[in-house]
Amino acid sequence: MPRTVPAAIVGSAFTGFSRLVTGVRGNWVGCTPSPEPRVYFANHSSHGDFVLIWAVLPAALRRRTRPVAGADYWNRSATRRYLGRDVFDAVLIERDPEARTEDPVTQMARALDDGASLILFPEGTRNTGEERLQPFKTGLYHLSRARPAVELVPVWIENLNRVMPKGEFLPVPLLCTVTFGAPIRAGEDEDKDAFLARARAALLALSEPEARR
Amino acid sequence: MSPTLQALALFAVLAAVLVTASAVGHALARRSGGAPNPTVENLNARIKAWWVMIGVLALAFVFGKIGLVLLFAFASFAALREYLTLTDTRRGDHLALVAMFFVVLPVQYWLVGSEWYGLFAVFIPVYVFLLLPILVALRGDTTDFMARIAEMQWGLMICVYCLSHVPALATLAIPGFEGRGLMLIAFLVLVVQGSDVLQYIWGKLLGRTKVAPKLSPSKTWEGLIGGVATATLLGAALSAITPFGVGGAALLALVITVMGFLGGLVMSAIKRDRGVKDWGRMIEGHGGMLDRMDSVVFAAPVFFHAVRYFWTV
């Protein structure tokens, strides 16, 4: 939840602007909105990705849905610190293992225990290549093992990479959609690679045009 | 009758038609009882959307030429974003896309408003046609280059250039018709959209033989002939708000309804190719802006030039 009233207003300005530019529409094809703590895992191609997910979540859920983001990026300047901590209430994790003081999975599990839902980009960094989806990092698997009851919802964000490609400063107002698929969980004795392949396939399946209609 | 009185009378008649349509839709929904009937639900969604669309058009009329220029600039914007969302653009197109939305579109509508006909007619077909591929070429990405620039130019022609001919009708100088240019817009929009509705009704009542089964399963010869014939009569009935006379109005109505029908076929072919049913979801029951405007887009330039050639000095 945004920490102050001004931060809440700034947050609404971000979601409102993203709606205006992208006409974004949420497609709940595999599940319905739920107040239970969940992990939304999505493809990542733009800084606007989680704002767009925020924009299509019902307001009551938006307030307790926190993005997981790289501490190195969001701590780099005062503005970013304000946006990351106060406005987006991000769970900031250290991506460089050398610099870590706390395990990222522990941090995320604690946020879930506090009743928050998380937005996670398992590709780790923004995808700027030709491939639809980069390989997944292992955090999603470890998080699901740590909190096996929590639903992992695949979320495909379509077109935002075209609206605002990396390195451009003016957005093109193309229409975006955010599609929520059927939740998955790591099985009792499912190994890491099998689970990550399954999670990645579940997300890729949503990228097919047929799945989004 | 003064132009204002004429516009009031016109919208009063439209409101009466919509009240009747709403009453019929309500009665049909009541008759089908609790059982949900998709056809009736779609019909009622369409009627509701018509209330909104006629309301917006009336509001634009209150503000005169500037209101209509802004309304159709917005329609072009919505149509262009629906069109480009379905095309295969690449990162190297970004600057060209930005230019389409934020330079080309506003300039074209500014040219309509400023009544600079010479540049209005050639800006997109000549200057933008040359400028866009330059912007894309400078980015150096040659993959599918021809297809990309062709799709972009085609989108601008359809969504911006052709559509901008609708408000441009208000700028035509017709002797003895001063101050009534807006009525040409009302005539075009009512006849073409009326034809769509009438084709839909005739098709639902009598439709058997499909015109183009590969393009559109819902378009039938019975719907087409019935719709075009009744829309031609509608055009003749509207001759009082035009400078055309009864025969001229009927003939123009025939031409623009046929163009509108063929435009609908072309736009269906694109949707088929892209594997979508509708261009968007902006208007409930109708789909997107392009689903509603496809016939107007194809009719507007032909109507504009016919009127300009035969009725202006």
Word description of this protein:
Chain A is α/β, with parallel strands linked by helices. Chain A has nine helices and seven strands. Chain A has a seven-stranded mixed sheet, with helices on both faces. The longest helix of chain A has 18 residues, at about 5-20. The two termini of chain A are about 30 Å apart. In chain A, about 40% of the residues are buried. Chain B is mostly helical. Chain B contains eleven helices and no strands. The mean pLDDT of chain B is about 90. The chains are: A alpha/beta (about 210), B mainly alpha (about 325). The interface of A and B includes residues 23, 165, 174 and 175 of A.
Task: Throw out a few tags for this protein.
heterodimer, A: 213 residues, alpha/beta, 7-stranded mixed sheet, 9 helices, 38% helix, 16% strand, B: 313 residues, mainly alpha, 11 helices
Task: Output the structural class of chain B.
Answer: mainly alpha
Average pLDDT figure of chain B:
92
Indicate the multimeric state.
heterodimer
Number of helices of chain A: 9
Radius of gyration of chain B: 20 Å
Overall mean pLDDT of chain A stands at 90
Class based on secondary structure composition and strand pairing of chain A = alpha/beta
Rg of chain A (C-alpha, Å): 16 Å
| N- to C-terminal distance of chain A | 31 Å
Summarize the largest interface: chains and residue counts. Answer: A-B, 13 and 17 residues
Largest sheet of chain A: 7 strands, mixed
What is the number of beta strands of chain B?
Answer: 0
Number of helices of chain B: 11
**Segments of chain A where pLDDT lies below 50 for 5+ residues?**
none
Strand order of the largest sheet of chain A: 1-7-6-2-5-3-4
- The N- to C-terminal Cα distance of chain B equals 24 Å
Total count of strands of chain A: 7
